[in-house]
Amino acid sequence: MEQSSFQPLHAGILIPSVSGGGAEKSLLTLARSLIERGCRIDLLPLSLKGQYRTIIPDGARLYYRRRWRADGQLLRYCRAHGIKVVALPVNPLVALTAGRSLRRAFPEINLRPSEVRHAVAIAHYIREMRPQILVAGLAGPNNAAVLAAELMGRCLPVVASIRNNVAKAADYRGRRLALARTLMPRAEAVVAISQGAAREATKILDLDPERVHTIYNSRPVEEIRKQAEEDVLHPWFDSAEYPVILSVLRDAPQKDWATLVSAFGHVRRKKNVRLAVLGDLSEQYRKRVLVLAESLGVEKDILFLGFDENPYRYLGRAKLFVLSSRWEGLSSILIEALACGTPVVSTDTPYGPAEILENGRWGRLTPVGDAEAMAQAILDSLAGDTVLPEALRRRAEYFSMERVLADYEALFENLIANSKIDNERNTTAKV
Considering the domain boundaries, does residue 2 fall inside one? Predict the structure, then answer.
């Protein structure tokens, strides 16, 4: 790989929390890679909670709004690893003044007090820490970044991001859609994690196409492969007689557990096979899954693994990975499965899977919600009609951090070079 002329920068990265799904994980991975390139990276979660504390990169700084209830385990982890944690103050009088200013600037949207307080805290961070650029992920952080930059006189470029299907995701409905339509066009750039998501967002949010950039989620392919070699203690993964299908679910209609379980029921009637499910699911959600499983007579063949900091050891030992989503922004878990050399079956959901799998070249695609088609694709895959593991691993390298990081670096450098920030920034701040 050629040596680039990239100049290390100072960036603030806004994330919803240090938990959640692939979006948060991808942003934390980006932060770590930028730090390794010599950048100063500040993380600004809107909620100081999360299960991904172990992938907070060493060398990052964590800024959060004072008076939040913080995750004790997260704080202890940060202290143990030398990660500085800073509370951002929000003066009530400043928040009141800022709210009036923002409501005058955006009279068409009804800003809530919590949204104003988020913006004030981040504006304080901008004024004190003086980052060169703000990078935001998901709807809440996107809005907070744009509002904070507005309060600071738009003194630095904002990179918002689209990490889900705007036409489907709850973050873009009703009032939230009105917020996004008003605020997202004011970002200097918008990164979408798939071409389909980019087209959809440009149309629905009325974005300038020249400001919209497609940069796929990256995955640390070599690290995934190493972690996939770690031991799995559960006996299911040692059985040759009952191969394991692996999937990932969370408490959201998007993941369509009913199609997954129904398809598994069809497969189980024809073949000895088991289903293992990763994900931090509520007890109520598990019960709903098991009610359907019991009606199909397969409840004893389903295992809930819960949240695991290293899901790749399961991916590496599963016979097949299955994604049943109704929609996605990209679906990083498919990339991770490919990195482990594990065959995949996925719904042809908008958007992402078809782009990752190149319209079925690297794995089977089935219609959304079609349990019978999914079952047949699973049976065909279990019969051995799949791409060789080494070819799947090579496909995953297309989404490696080295490749994706170059796109981010070029975008950041261009935005900073073209911004109108002078040496005496923040002179037009409203707070």
Answer: no
